[in-house]
Design a protein that fits this description.
5 strands; alpha+beta; 32% helix; 2 helices; single chain; 21% strand; 145 residues; 5-stranded antiparallel β-sheet
Length: 145
Amino acid sequence: PLPRPGAPVAHTGSMPLGTPQGLGASSSRRALFEQRRERVSRAREQERERLEPRAERRHAVAAGRPMGERPGRTGNPDAVGAADGTPPPKLEQTLHEGDKVRHPLFGPGVVVASRLVGGDEEVTVAFVGQGIKKLMLQFARLERI
């Protein structure tokens, strides 16, 4: 027979959270959680302090030139090149639509578009099995095939 509603029932498992013993277990879990949160917070703060000097150096170096401009380059398109050996800005396109090229990682492909951008050449290439990629020719290591 089932007990009638509201009648006392014998428990065979752990005490529910509403009892004094259950509250003790809950508060110790809460204390462990708080301790772990404090340790994580301290570790994050120490990591932030450790990395802060690097960020300050990086910002100080970057402060001397406009954003996006590489060191050693001038904004003058007529400049021949900088003293540090950087190549002069491109004045004409090297690759044209339909040229076949090979990239060390993407493999063979066909030039879809090419345009001069800031003293370099932006090349859009359709690679076999790799999709269409936009690459800056100065960094792309493309080989005409």
